[in-house]
Specification:
The complex is a heterodimer of chains A (265) and B (399). With 265 residues, chain A is of the alpha/beta class. Chain A has helices spanning 4-13, 30-42, 62-73, 78-89, 102-108, 110-120, 136-144, 159-168, 192-202, 216-221, 233-241, 247-261; strands at 18-24, 48-51, 96-99, 124-126, 148-149, 151-153, 173-176, 207-210, 228-231. Chain A has a single domain (4-261), classed as TIM Barrel, CATH 3.20.20. Helices cover 47% and strands 13% of the residues of chain A. In chain B, helix 11 (243-249) links the parallel strand 9 (234-238) and strand 10 (258-264). Classes of the chains: A alpha/beta (265), B alpha/beta (399). Bound molecules: pyridoxal-5'-phosphate (PLP).
Chain lengths: 265, 399
Amino acid sequence: MSRIPAAFRDAAADSRLVIAPYVALGYPDMPTSVALARAYLDSGADMLELGVPFSDPIADGPTIQRATQRALAEGATVAGCIEAAAAIRASTGAPLVLMGYANPFMKWGYEDLARDLHGAGVDGLIVPDLLPDDNDDLASACNAHGLNVISLLAPTTPSERIGRVAERGSGFLYCVSLTGVTGRRQDLQTGLTAFLQRVGEASTLPRAVGFGVSTPAHVGALCGQAEAAIMASALIDIFDAAPPSQAVSRAAAHVGAMVDAARCR
Amino acid sequence: MTTAAQAPTPDAAGYFGPWGGRYVPETLVPALEELEHAFMRLRDDQSFQGELTRLLRHYAGRPTALYEARRLQAELGGARIWLKREDLAHTGAHKINNALGQALLAVRSGKRRVIAETGAGQHGVATATVCAMFGLECVVYMGEEDVHRQALNVVRMRMLGAEVVPVTSGSQTLKDAINEALRDWVTHVETTFYLFGSATGPHPYPLIVREFQKVIGIEARAQMFEQTGNLPHTVVACVNGGSNAIGIFHPFVDDPVGLVGVEAGGTGPAETAATLEAGSPGILHGAISYLLQDEDGQIAPTHSIAAGLDYPGVGPEHAHLRDSGRAAYVSVTDEQALEALQTLARLEGIIPALESAHAVAHTMELAPTLPADASILVNLSGRGDKDMDTVVGALGAMG
Ligand SMILES: Cc1ncc(COP(=O)(O)O)c(C=O)c1O
C-alpha cells in the first residue's frame, strides 16, 4: 500500500503543506545523496522525490542537468538508485517517490521495475516524459504492485484535459508551476493561482507544486492553493555553494525553513 | 500515385506499428495538438498548397534534376545509376523542402519566433533561409563540436540573420542540440514554432516531415518513368533521423522496388551511429524507436564523420519499415563514405555531402551485383561544400 495518501491526510489534519524535497541520487556520490535524503527527513520533510539520472534530461535546467550528469559520471545506475531507495526506506516511514525519464525505466522493464521498486519500499513514480496517453504498460505494472503513477499537469494544459490526465494518475497531481524547465526562480509564475484553481475544480487528488519553488516565501504563498510543495534546484544550488563539510547541513536547514513556512495557520 | 491506405501511416496517436507516439513533457502537449490540427487542416487547403508549390518551384528550384551517372556506372559495371539531385535545391540539401513547409505552417499559425536544431548545419541553414524570407525570428541550436566541423554553415546561418546557439552539454552534437531546442520550446511554447528537421521526434513531426519531403520521391518516380520507362530496381538513401530517405521511399512503398537505407557505420562497431543495425528499442526526443544506448538505458555516444548522421536515434517509420521487411538498412564506414565522395567528385564532377556519400558508397557495392538493365535510384541529399575542412583533415590523417 502506498504511503502517499496517509502523508497528505496527516498534513491536512494539521493544516500543513506536504514538503517534498528532491534528491539527485548519486550526486555528488551515492552515499552523500543517501545522507542528504536522511538529513531532509530529519529536518521535517514529509516525502522525498528521488531522482534517477538520465543522459538527456530535456525537462531540466542547468542545475539538475549538471547534478545528474555528475551522478552518471560517478557511476550511478538504476540498480544503484533502487538500492539507495531501499537504504533510505530502512530508516523512515515517509513516502518515497522515484522520479526519472522513461528510457532507463523502459530498459529495466516496467514489470521488473514495479516489482523491484515495491520491494525497495518505494511508493510512486514520476516520469516527466511519459504522458498518461502513452503509459499503459507502466501504469498497469505499477497498479499491480500498489505503486502510484503520478500525473503531471502544466499551466498550458487545457481545462478539458486536466480531468482526463488526473483520472489516469494516482497519489497526487504534480503541478508544474511554470512554463519552462526546472531551475531556481525569483518569483512564482503569475497565473499559478488560477492554474491551481482549475486543477482543484477538475480533480480531488492533492496538488503538489514543483519547478521553481525556491524559498520559504514561495512555500508560504502556496498555503490554501495546493497541498504540497516540491523543491529541487534551489536545494542543489545551496548544497553546491556551501563548503563541502557543511553542504548537507545547509541544504537540510533550507528544507527546515520550508517546513516551517508550510504551517499554514 | 501511391494509395494512402496501403502506405504505412501513423495511427491517430502517432504510432507506426509499435513505434512513434508522443513522449514529451505535459507542457508541450497542447502545442503538439495545435500543430497536428493546423497541419491536418492545411494539407488539404488549396491556398496553402498553392503557396508551397510556388515556393518549392520558384524559390527552392524544384523539381530537382534526375541525372544518370554514366561514368560511375562504367567504372563499377552492373546497374545504371540515377542521382536525385537534392544537392541542387536552394541551400544545397533536401532540408529546404521541409523548412519551407513548416515555416508556412508557422506563418499560418501566427508564430513569429522559430527555433531549430541542426547537426550538419543544413537544416539550420534551410531554417535560417526560410525565416529570412518570411521575416521570422530564428534561433538555431547546434552542438559545439558541430559548430567547429561545419563552420561554413555557421557563417551562413549568421549571415541569414539567425542566432546560432552553441550547445556545450553532453556529446555536443545533434542529440544535445535537440535537448536544448526542446528546453527552449518548453519555455517559450506559446510564442514559438519548433521547426523540427528530421522524420523523428514526437507525433506529428514524423508525419509532417515525411509529407513535406515526399516531393522528392514523387518527382523521382515520374522522372524515372520519363527517362527509363520503368521503375528503379532499388532506391538508396542515407538515414539519420531519416527525412531524405522517407521522402524518396514513401512514394515507392507500394511498388515492387527495393528500398535500402544506409546508416553511418563510423569507424566500426565500437564507434558507430548505425541505430537500426546496432540499437535496441527505447524512448528519446519524443518517440519510441530504436536507439543506441547502454545496458542501463543511458544514450550511448555515437560517431560518424558526417555530422548530419551522428545521432543515436532513427525515425519511427523507418523502425516500422525495417520490422515489416519492406525496407532494408545497411551501414557503411567513414572510410567508405570518404572514398565514395572522392569517386563521385572525380568521375561525375559532383561533390556530395558526406551524409549523401554514404548512400553513394552503398550504391558502389550494390551496382556491380545487378544486371545492366536494372536501375538504382540514389538520393543525393546534399552537396559537400560544408564538408571540405573535414574531408581534407581526414584525408591528411589517413595519409
Ligand atoms: C545532406 C544531408 N543528408 C542527410 C542528412 C540526414 O538527415 P535525414 O536522415 O533526416 O535525411 C543530413 C542532415 O543533416 C544532411 O545534411
